[in-house]
Amino acid sequence: MSKVAVVTGSNKGIGFGIVKALCQRFDGVVYLTSRDETRGKEAVAKLNELGLKPEYHQLDVGDRNSVEKFRDYIKAKYGGLDILINNAAVLDADFMSGTYEDVVNSININYKSIFSMKELIYPLVRNNGRIINISSDCGHLSNLKNEYWIKRLSKADLSEADVNEFVNWYVESKKNNTYNPEDFADGGTIPTYRVSKIALSAVTMVHQREFESKNISINSMHPGLVRTDMTSGSGFFSTDEAAETPVYLALDAPQSLKGAYVWFDKKVLDWYDYKADYYFKIKTLNW
Ligand SMILES: NC(=O)c1ccc[n+]([C@@H]2O[C@H](COP(=O)([O-])OP(=O)(O)OC[C@H]3O[C@@H](n4cnc5c(N)ncnc54)[C@H](OP(=O)(O)O)[C@@H]3O)[C@@H](O)[C@H]2O)c1
């Protein structure tokens, strides 16, 4: 039976780099997926020009109906999958008008989408499979300065409900105009993105516990500051370079690496070290 790898939001940027690298190294079928079919098929054509042959399927992680269709397709065609890289994300809300609707939309794509993936796609991940959540340096706990939430997110028995309440606390603060930049590092810059990624890395550890019985490894990682549309081309790494650690986690890391937060240089960091200096600094963008 074919092994199957799936990368979300892979028509461009880091996701595209990951598909490219997996096509070169993975002994199985690689799915490039995108919310927009035209953009996705154009990306496949670019890889075909390099002699690489990813498969394609539409997948909008923010649209449950789309995730269901993808689930049905993979289940019927392969019975399951082996590698899932949750890469799709947006940075819109913090740079556009920053309206409440923008905040909700970004949180939905970057964080809440993980729940429809978990419900519909994770059960298809075969024993000893791997799930990699592309988080960010914005996802390390040191991005948070609010003592109550630092403590609550550090609980050994952390639950989805804890993480959801954290996210809702922030979203409500945007709705009620009570958002306090002092609750976050770096003067509270790009708070929606920070919250979505802190939540994604936190829930990674919860989901690891839930899928332990199938010996699935679920980790989150920071890909480095990468030259993509998200950073308007600012960054230290190309998308090919940025793909190295996600692909390492998918193919080379020990299966025993579980529920970890991994840096772009493959080092496992202590996610709970809230006093550390790992948090994102806006000045590194050099805009
Ligand atoms: N670049 C960096 O320096 C950096 C640093 C830390 C973390 N990251 C993380 O790395 C990942 C990739 O970012 P990137 O820099 O490659 O960004 P990017 O170039 O903007 O690419 C983002 C991708 O996600 C897709 N996407 C957005 N919403 C989606 C949805 N609802 N369903 C499916 N796909 C969707 C986009 O599709 P469209 O083309 O349709 O918009 C695009 O393909 C993200 O998780 C990001 O947060 C990036």
UniProtKB/TrEMBL annotation:
<keyword id="KW-0560">Oxidoreductase</keyword>
<protein>
    <recommendedName>
        <fullName>carbonyl reductase (NADPH)</fullName>
        <ecNumber>1.1.1.184</ecNumber>
    </recommendedName>
</protein>
<dbReference type="InterPro" id="IPR045313">
    <property type="entry name" value="CBR1-like"/>
</dbReference>
<dbReference type="Pfam" id="PF00106">
    <property type="entry name" value="adh_short"/>
</dbReference>
<dbReference type="InterPro" id="IPR036291">
    <property type="entry name" value="NAD(P)-bd_dom_sf"/>
</dbReference>
<dbReference type="GO" id="GO:0004090">
    <property type="term" value="F:carbonyl reductase (NADPH) activity"/>
</dbReference>
<comment type="similarity">
    <text>Belongs to the short-chain dehydrogenases/reductases (SDR) family.</text>
</comment>
<keyword id="KW-0521">NADP</keyword>
<dbReference type="InterPro" id="IPR002347">
    <property type="entry name" value="SDR_fam"/>
</dbReference>
